[in-house]
Description:
The complex is a heterodimer.
Chain A: E1 9-13, E2 18-23, E3 31-38, E4 45-50, E5 55-56, E6 61-64, E7 70-75, E8 84-92, E9 107-112
Parallel strand pairs in A: 1-9
Antiparallel strand pairs in A: 2-7, 3-4, 3-8, 5-6, 6-7, 8-9
Chain B: E1 4-7, E2 10-13, E3 19-25, E4 32-38, E5 45-51, E6 57-58, E7 67-73, E8 76-81, E9 90-99, E10 103-106, E11 110-114
Parallel strand pairs in B: 2-11
Antiparallel strand pairs in B: 1-3, 3-8, 4-5, 4-9, 5-6, 7-8, 9-10, 9-11
Amino acid sequence: DAKTTQPPSMDCAEGRAANLPCNHSTISGNEYVYWYRQIHSQGPQYIIHGLKNNETNEMASLIITEDRKSSTLILPHATLRDTAVYYCIVRVANSNSGYALNFGKGTSLLVTP
Amino acid sequence: GAVVSQHPSRVICKSGTSVKIECRSLDFQATTMFWYRQFPKQSLMLMATSNEGSKATYEQGVEKDKFLINHASLTLSTLTVTSAHPEDSSFYICSAWGAAPYGYTFGSGTRLTVV
């Protein structure tokens, strides 16, 4: 799996957009970018994933650069409940069986009032 | 959406006893389940991967005789911590593979405290 690099921590004011960067310069052509978050003492929660096109869902947007070497997760209007550790994971998508997601250290996002 | 039920959410046990943690996929069949461990202020560390009906594959450094994993059906996997010691105190999380559209669904975790 390609290695990812994320800033260890970020702050964001409530109501503003939170932009979380992730570097994955060694990503392969068949590897997807997944984003999960973990609120304190809970299991990880899926946010979004993508291959090369930008993606948007009800939770967030994922912007992947054209060379796919980096991506940004955007929470458009952060709330206090978005305070969590955000993990960027690169993984081959396999439809036949699962390979474990390997978690790095992630970015600890603190949303402040 | 896909749901993975994990219980108990919290357990306290005495040193030397065994504890079983259950992980169930409620609305899909999980061909593969994963068990993670997370110590305070650290990331999730993969312990083992289990496929229904076969033996689990353990990560390096994880004692298979201490952490017994059973994946007897497509909806249930169990992790038994045998002869627990205080250093086994941790947050244990299961994940199930098999639900569309993104495949990985996580349980809510089990906080194990060994006293």
